[in-house]
C-alpha cells in the first residue's frame, strides 16, 4: 500500500538522525535541491553537522532535544539505523519518519531480519539463535563449522562477529562475544558479493542502480566495482529480490541489499540496510543523480530521477584509517574523484573517505 505524501517544496527542512559521513552526503544532496537539513547526533563536531543548516548535539534519549528537533523539521530520516526504539516512537508521534519504522524494526536485529527475509521466500545462510553456550553448541551441531557467530544487534563493519573453525573452542567464542544474544550463521563459500541499491518512492515506484560487486577486507567494505561480473539475468533477479523486500516494508527512500553469489545463478541475501549504503557511493560520479539525491527525492515526495549509469566502469575504493594520508596523490590521479568526510581523527578501521575511479 502506498502512503499519502505531498511533495515538500524548496526551503522545507529535513531532519537527519545521525551525523556521520552518510548524513553529511545526504545533507549536501538536500542542499542541492534547495532543502535545509537539521542533524541530530550525540557526538560533538560531527561530519554532517558541519555542512547542515543546524546540528543538535544531544543523547538519543534526551526527550526535550528530540522534541526541539522534531519541531524544527518537516520530515525525519536517518543515516544510522540503531537509534533506540523509544526515541523513534516518540519522534514518529511528532513528524513523519521516512523510511517508516517497519524498515528499522525488521532490520535492527539479525534474527528478526533473517526470519523476515525467509518469510518472503528468499534464501539466507542457515542460522540459529544463540542465547547461551548450550544454544551455541546445539547450533554448531546443527549448522556445522566453519560458521560465524554474530551479535543480534549493533554489529557493523565486521564488529560483533567471530569466525569459528572446526577446531575452535565454542566456550571461548561465547565468552569473547560477552554473552550477548547472537546468531550462529553457516559459512557461505561464495564466488562473489554484490549489492542492490534502490530507491522506492511513496507511490511504490522503484529505481534501482546498476549492481556493484563488493570486496571486503577484515569485514569492512574495500571496493565496489560496477558493473558486477554477473549475468544480466542474475542482476535482474537480484533487483527483483531487493524490490520485493522494499515492497514488503513499504519502504520510502534508498534501501540496500547485500547478496552472496554462489556459482553462476544462486543468490543468498546477506543483509538489508534501510538507508544509503557504502556500496552505492560510486553513483556520485557514475550517475546524474546519486543515491543521496534519490533518497532525498523519495522522502520529500519528489519524483525519482533516472538511475542510469553514464560511465563504462567505476571502481569505488574506501579510504580507511591512514589511507587518508594519500589524499594529495589521489587528487592528482586522472579520472579519479576524491570524497573526504571531514573527520578530525583517523583511527584504524575508521572510514575517512573514498575515491571513485572512472574507466570511460
Ligand atoms: P556482515 O556485517 O554480516 O555483512 O558481514 C561482513 C562481511 O563478512 C560480509 O560482507 C562477508 O564478506 C563476510 N561474511 C558475513 N557473513 C558471512 C557468511 N555467513 N559466510 C561467509 N562470509 C560471510
TrEMBL record:
Record bears the keyword Nucleotide-binding: yes
Annotated Pfam families: ATP-grasp, PurK_C, RS_preATP-grasp-like
One of the protein's GO biological processes: 'de novo' IMP biosynthetic process
Protein EC: 6.3.4.18
Residue span(s) of domain ATP-grasp: 114-300
Name of the top EC class for this enzyme: ligase
Keywords, comma-separated and alphabetical: ATP-binding, Ligase, Nucleotide-binding, Purine biosynthesis
Catalyses which reaction(s): 5-amino-1-(5-phospho-beta-D-ribosyl)imidazole + hydrogencarbonate + ATP = 5-carboxyamino-1-(5-phospho-D-ribosyl)imidazole + ADP + phosphate + 2 H(+)
Residues bound to ATP: 110, 150, 155-161, 185-188, 193, 216, 270-271
Gene3D superfamilies cross-referenced by the UniProt entry: 3.40.50.20, ATP-grasp fold, A domain, ATP-grasp fold, B domain
Listed pathway(s): Purine metabolism; IMP biosynthesis via de novo pathway; 5-amino-1-(5-phospho-D-ribosyl)imidazole-4-carboxylate from 5-amino-1-(5-phospho-D-ribosyl)imidazole (N5-CAIR route): step 1/2
Function: Catalyzes the ATP-dependent conversion of 5-aminoimidazole ribonucleotide (AIR) and HCO(3)(-) to N5-carboxyaminoimidazole ribonucleotide (N5-CAIR).
Quaternary state and interactors: Homodimer.
Family designation: Belongs to the PurK/PurT family.
Name of the molecule in the record: N5-carboxyaminoimidazole ribonucleotide synthase
Organism: Candidatus Phycosocius bacilliformis
